[in-house]
Specification:
Elements (H helix, E strand, L loop, with lengths): L6 H29 L8 H40 L11
Length: 94
């Protein structure tokens, strides 16, 4: 493929124009990215609300653990009650 003599200066002019315009735009974009905080700022009322929710979830988790312990204890008692062999001694009737 043969390149005409007119194409070389046009391409050079386009590359120069893109560099002259693109370099300041790229620098401005980089500065803007550096100025922005890495983590988004959270309003204090949202932070306080999240802390209250965390405390509520912790208390719910404690209550659920207490309920499950009670259920395990009840299940253990019921399983021991059903496995106790009868001694053949009758209870006195009232």
């Amino acid at each position: 493929m043969r390149v005409s003599g007119e194409l070389i200066p046009i391409v050079m002019f386009m590359c120069t124009a893109v560099t002259i315009i693109g370099f300041p735009v790229a620098r401005a974009f980089a500065r803007r990215m550096e100025r922005e905080p890495s983590q988004p700022s959270v309003p204090p009322d949202v932070t306080a609300r999240l802390e209250r929710m965390e405390q509520a979830l912790d208390s719910i988790a404690i209550e659920v653990e207490r309920i499950s312990e009670g259920q395990r204890f009840t299940t253990k008692l019921l399983s021991e009650r059903s496995t106790v062999p009868s001694t053949g001694v009758s209870r006195p009737q009232q």
